[in-house]
Specification:
globular, five-stranded mixed sheet, alpha/beta
Length: 112
């Protein structure tokens, strides 16, 4: 099993290729599709940062305004959308502000 070099902080995705590379490199990934203008996204941000620091999951941030095509390809209709990937495949998706314990629970399930 590979251990991701955990930076302890979310990684800001810069392009579709960058996203695909990161999904391929890491076992369990949480992708936070967000926007600067989105109030609920700002509420969720500290939770996402804590998950990056406290779990083995790799956390990616995708700004839907900067990477509109990536968000469209992922089928993101509203923000915040949190997509969970296991071995490069989407395994779970939640929309809206979520409880940290629920998000950590999904990650633990995928990592098991």
């Amino acid at each position: 099993m590979s251990t991701p070099e955990s930076t302890g902080a979310p990684i800001h995705v810069e392009s579709e290729d960058h996203l695909e590379e990161l999904l391929a490199e890491h076992d369990v990934v949480l992708v936070d599709f967000h926007a600067e203008w989105c109030g609920p996204c700002k509420m969720l941000e500290p939770t996402v940062e804590e998950i990056a620091a406290e779990t083995g999951a790799t956390v990616l941030k995708v700004d839907i305004d900067d990477l509109r095509a990536v968000a469209q390809d992922a089928g993101v209709r509203s923000v915040p959308t949190l997509a969970f990937y296991k071995d490069g495949e989407e395994a779970e998706r939640v929309v809206g502000v979520q409880d940290k314990s629920d998000l950590v629970g999904i990650i633990e399930q995928l990592a098991a």
